[in-house]
């Protein structure tokens, strides 16, 4: 249909700059008109590449819309690259190595993205030993380097304590993730640094974490709200824990802004629609997805480094206390 050789058409479809731009446009136009798409199975046999990126995603809901935002960001980066995004589930409580090993051993993807890292994450060790391209949402403590995108949870926790202190709160509670995750350490360090610096009373609940269900957090909050030394300030690294705590305190007859205050990490406008005056610190999950996709594409070109390592700064924009009181 184009009157060109097969190799020329192939190179034009791949965007080879050695092919004239007018020729590339003409080939793409005809391909679109006839609905041509490359045969992925044939491409894989010829190149050894799947043209697939696998995002391993667990169903935690500490931040509303986390999964959708991350997928949107990664997909945005991959648009026009020829790579297809495949989402692989990682169920809470399951073996985090299982989906990684399955993908690698069955050659189901050219690169992997995963989240919720541990200090010495076996997934990182497994993939680095095989020079398999990956990037993680979260850091580790390995001596060797790897690509990652992370959020400055230490700064989030530190600034949250200071904000609650400015509002006159003295008994500060933080809801932490399970202690085997790396970001548990970052949150706890920032929190305790501010608590000790300002001489405040700390409260870290036993048996409650960011992975606890909302009914469980609600019951805990309702019970502790009725005690004489109930926390009067909360740091919630996700909207769902705050909503459960606020409901529990409400059931105990306590009001936010009077009996307690909170600082919440959020990634959307959902919480501000529910409670417009809540103090929140933003985490841009969609941007994290964009960065993860970008970092992975670079790693796929250089599997042994150098690696892109990005730490997102918390978006802090508290209203002044004077305007809040007015």
How many β-strand stretches?
12
Q: How would a textbook summarize the main sheet?
A: 6 strands, parallel
Q: Name the helicity range.
A: 40-55%
Please report the distance between the alpha carbons of the first and last residues: 72 Å
H/E topology pattern: HHHEHEHEHEEHEHEHEHEHEHEEH
Main β-sheet, spatial strand arrangement:
2-1-3-4-5-11
Mean pLDDT: 91
Uncertain segments of ≥5 residues (pLDDT<50)? none
Strand content: 15-25%
Domain HTH lacI-type: 1-47
Pfam families: LacI
Keywords: DNA-binding, Transcription, Transcription regulation
Protein name: LacI family transcriptional regulator
Describe this structure in words.
The chain has 326 residues and is α/β, with parallel strands linked by helices. 44% of the residues lie in helices and 16% in strands. The protein has 13 helices and twelve strands. A six-stranded parallel sheet has the order 2-1-3-4-5-11, sandwiched between helices. Strand 3, helix 6 and strand 4 form a beta-alpha-beta unit. Helix 1 crosses helix 2, helix 7 runs parallel beside helix 8 and helix 9 packs across helix 10. The protein is elongated, with a radius of gyration of 24 Å. The model has no long low-confidence stretch (mean pLDDT 91). Pfam families: LacI (PF00356). InterPro entries: HTH_LacI, Lambda_DNA-bd_dom_sf, Peripla_BP_I. This is LacI family transcriptional regulator.
How do the strands and helices of this protein lay out in sequence?
Layout: H1 6-13, H2 21-34, H3 40-47, E1 52-57, H4 66-78, E2 84-89, H5 97-105, E3 111-115, H6 122-129, E4 134-137, E5 148-151, H7 153-166, E6 171-174, H8 182-198, E7 201-203, H9 214-225, E8 233-236, H10 239-251, E9 261-266, H11 270-274, E10 279-282, H12 285-301, E11 309-312, E12 315-316, H13 321-325
Parallel strand pairs: 1-2, 1-3, 3-4, 4-5, 5-11, 6-7, 6-8, 8-9, 9-10
Antiparallel strand pairs: 10-12
Helix pairs in contact: 1-2, 4-12, 5-6, 7-8, 9-10
């Amino acid at each position: 249909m184009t009157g060109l050789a097969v190799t020329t058409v192939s190179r034009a479809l791949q965007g080879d700059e050695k092919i004239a731009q007018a020729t590339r446009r003409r080939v793409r136009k005809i391909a679109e008109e006839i609905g041509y798409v490359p045969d992925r199975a044939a491409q894989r046999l010829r190149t050894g590449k799947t043209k697939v990126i696998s995002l391993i995603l667990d169903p935690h809901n500490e931040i509303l819309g986390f999964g959708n935002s991350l997928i949107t960001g990664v997909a945005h980066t991959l648009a026009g690259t020829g790579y297809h995004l495949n989402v692989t589930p990682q169920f809470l409580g399951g073996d985090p190595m299982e989906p990684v090993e399955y993908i690698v051993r069955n050659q189901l993807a050219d690169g992997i993205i995963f989240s919720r890292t541990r200090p010495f994450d076996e997934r990182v060790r497994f993939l680095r030993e095989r020079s398999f391209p990956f990037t993680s949402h979260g850091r580790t403590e390995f001596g060797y380097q790897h690509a990652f995108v992370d959020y400055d949870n230490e700064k989030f926790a530190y600034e949250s304590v200071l904000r609650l202190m400015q509002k006159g709160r003295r008994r500060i509670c933080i809801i932490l993730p399970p202690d085997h995750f790396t970001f548990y350490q970052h949150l706890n360090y920032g929190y305790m640094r501010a608590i000790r610096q300002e001489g405040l009373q700390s409260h870290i609940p036993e048996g409650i974490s960011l992975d606890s269900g909302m009914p469980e957090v609600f019951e805990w909050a309702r019970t502790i709200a009725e005690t004489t030394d109930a926390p009067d300030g909360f740091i919630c690294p996700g909207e769902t824990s705050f909503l459960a705590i606020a409901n529990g305190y409400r059931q105990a007859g306590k009001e936010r802004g009077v009996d307690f205050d909170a600082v919440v990490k959020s990634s959307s406008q959902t919480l501000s629609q529910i409670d417009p005056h809540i103090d929140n610190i933003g985490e841009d999950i969609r941007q994290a997805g964009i960065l993860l996709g970008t970092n992975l594409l670079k790693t796929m070109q250089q599997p042994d480094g150098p690696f892109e390592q990005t730490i997102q700064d918390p978006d802090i924009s508290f209203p002044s206390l004077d305007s809040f009181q007015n």
